[in-house]
Amino acid sequence: MATLVFFSVRESAQATTRRCFRGLAKAGHSQSSVPATHSPVVALLPGVRWFSRGTAARLVPHGTSGGSAAGRGGGGGGALALSGAAVVAAAAAVAGFMANAGHFQRAEMASRVSPAEEDEPDGDIAKRCKAFMSPPVTDVNVLQGRKEEMSTRMEMLIMETQAEFCKALEEVDGGTFKVDRWQRKEGGGGISCVMQDGKVFEKAGVNVSVVFGNLTEEAAKQMRSRGKVLKGKDGKLPFCAMGVSSVIHPKNPHIPTVHFNYRYFEIEEADGSKQWWFGGGTDLTPVYIDKEDAFHFHNTLKEACDKHHPQYYPDFKKWCDRYFYVRHRGETRGIGGIFFDDLDSPSQEEAFRFVTSCARTVVPCYLPIVHKHLDHRFTDEEKHWQQVRRGRYVEFNLVYDRGVKFGLATPGSRIESILMSLPLTARWEYMHEPAKGTREAEMLEVLRNPKEWV
């Protein structure tokens, strides 16, 4: 059952941040050097603060959750690039993962988390939707009528993730997101939330997409190349896909860029059976190395992974380092995080709980780092280095990112959502190489030789 609890978000944020920073204390990291930040704030740990959002109502699971969605119909979260934001959030599921063929993984998940601990909030769909940045893509009445199906549960999770992250960023920046709803004529649509040229964030985008239709033959071939055995009817393969995707580019070089996406994909075969899988990840791209930030970010992700299987973090961390690699530069895009795809075991329910755990790390793994560096001043030289690193970010996204490439090559794509991940400003210099012994050279060394942070 679910209990309606009125609580202070100040208390909730405090508890979240205490949990996500306890690893720092275990490792003996000092927080004494973390500066105070803007008010109104709440002191959580020495040097760590969080904004308050006043009082709110929320449905909190109590006891055993009711009903399982395992094996039921659903939506999807790799997205066909025909859909725009779906490209950024999920098109990799359709684009084919030839580069990762050697490390295709089917996880064997241990059921370590009780249903009540990680399940999404119960209760009336319409009430939960009121907290979103926009009404969901799917009609609320439709969602209410199939609330136990995976398509509804995943759409609610990605909408909640979008809203929680956007509101946390708005609180820090003082600006507001432009909410842009769009429709895909082939089926479905999305919600793009973008904030540009704010006080803290140069560009911040958080996209949701929910699309459906029939796979093209090209897309089906790419999926088969990844080991998917797909049997269509009359040449058609109905699919449903959904995901949430975000890229945040701060103005201050001391605040890292962050990216995440979580997605679900489902295909119905000729005999009515369904194939489904989850994918996603979260990764950090700093301009300068801060070991405490790196530890906090990776440790928060590790704790979420460890609730489900001890091999998840080490395996998905390595996968992330391999994927976000700028081959022509011989360096990673950032300091990584986790990345996974084709997750279809041991059950739909367990896989969904794992993705839920990951999605709920988005705010606690990133916002404490943002607050820590809010008041840090920076020089023209540091801003210049940020622009150079932004150039490398653009190179990866346009040259290697499968979702972007697939979207740009697909007729009917929503270009604005595909290119949302690019920064407003970047710089390219001929034969640029930082001087030895500098912090810039230290950053480059880490990118050329990925490290273990926890």
UniProtKB/TrEMBL annotation:
It catalyses: coproporphyrinogen III + O2 + 2 H(+) = protoporphyrinogen IX + 2 CO2 + 2 H2O. Its EC number is 1.3.3.3. GO terms for molecular function: coproporphyrinogen oxidase activity. GO terms for biological process: protoporphyrinogen IX biosynthetic process. The keyword Metal-binding does not apply. Keywords: Heme biosynthesis, Oxidoreductase, Porphyrin biosynthesis. One of its GO terms (cellular component) is cytoplasm. Pathway: Porphyrin-containing compound metabolism; protoporphyrin-IX biosynthesis; protoporphyrinogen-IX from coproporphyrinogen-III (O2 route): step 1/1. Homodimer. NCBIfam families: PRK05330.1 (NF003727). This is Oxygen-dependent coproporphyrinogen-III oxidase, mitochondrial.
